[in-house]
Amino acid sequence: MTTQTIAIEGMRCDHCVQSVTEALSSVVGVQSCEVDLETGQATLELDRSQATIPLLAEAVQQAGFCLAANQTDETVVAA
Hints:
The chain is α+β, with helices and mostly antiparallel strands and 79 residues long. The protein has two helices and five strands; from the N terminus they run βαββαββ. β2 (30-36) and β3 form a beta hairpin. The longest helix is centred in the N-terminal third of the chain and has 12 residues, at 14-25. The N and C termini lie close together (7 Å). 24% of the residues are buried.
């Protein structure tokens, strides 16, 4: 498992946080997800062989939000 932090644009309230958390948690390979409204970031414990940035971005987009630009699978905080 890897810890990865991604920046999410467009969250304005606790309901937004809940929507993004549910969307990211539904991606295969995501073990846990914590979304912080104040920082606009989600910290994920995930299996990078299954939960890739494109899959995470798609889940966030389906929830009505988007990832901040220039995020890649190499944007890893800690292994």
